[in-house]
Amino acid sequence: MEKPKVEIGPAIGYGWASVKKDFWYLVGLALVSAVISSLANSRDHHPDGWGLLGIFLSTWMTCGQLKMMLSYQAGNKLPFADLFTQFKYFWRVLGATILVGLWIVVGLLLLIVPGIYLALRYQFTLQLIIDKNLGITEAMKQSQALTKGIKMSLLGFDLACLGVIILGAIVFGVGVFVAMPVVWLAMVALYRKLSSAQPSQNQPAA
Fold it and tell me: Are 151 and 90 in contact (CB under 8 A)?
């Protein structure tokens, strides 16, 4: 089966069209996510344990945010409350984040390029955990399969998404709250396109 192309324009265009269609829902989600992240990561005048709380809240919120974006792309708008109703994925998302992060750090120490390669290789690990209820190892394996042979195109896509975020930040700083859901949905659209072209090999976690 021929590997689907990584098309930057259509993916980002989908994200932008979705934000225009459901502006307050998606921008509101970005605002809530940003406020919670800023509170969780604020360590000034707080004990050291605040950092652990920040990691806990950010990981928990990531589970909900990914679930909401995947559901939105599938045509189902989940309520804001679902940002914190996906705890069943928490330990797998946390474990995968740590494991992939360690791989990337090791790769970056080996002259940077291997780190970028590994980041691209495991780019869709969290989406696979949430979308297909996979364990960490299987999600990493399937992410490797999804990204095989298209890593340079993925790098271009990721740089374009970074450009969207930077452009949003330039617009009085508040444009970033529009840029965030554009990028989230562009990522989900690309993931779903690549996943749909992959032979079914789901192995749900127990």
Answer: no
Which tokens in the block code for residue 113?
């390029």
Polymer length of the chain = 206
167, 175 Cβ separation under 8 angstroms: yes
Lowest mean pLDDT among 55-64, 81-90, 140-149, 169-178: 169-178
Please give the Cα distance from 116 to 125 (Å, whole number). 15
pTM metric for this prediction: 0.88
Q: How far apart are the first and last CA of the chain?
A: 30
Q: Under a CB-based contact definition with an 8 Å cutoff, are residues 27 and 19 in contact? A: yes
**CA distance to 23, 55, 65, 70, 167, per residue, from 127 (Å):** 23, 19, 10, 8, 25
Q: Are 189 and 14 in contact (CB under 8 A)?
A: yes
Structure token pair of residue 6:
């990584």
Going 176 to 182 to 185 to 191, the CA torsion angle's sign is negative
- With H, G, I as helix, E, B as strand and everything else as coil, classify residue 172: coil
**Cα–Cα distances in angstroms (integers) from residue 92 to residues 20, 55, 77, 100, in the given order:** 33, 14, 24, 12
Digit-coded pLDDT (tens) for 51-98: 677 778 888 999 999 999 999 999 999 998 898 899 999 999 999 999
Residues 40, 170, 154, 93, Cα dihedral to 10°: 10
Q: How far apart are CA 70 and CA 184, in angstroms?
A: 9
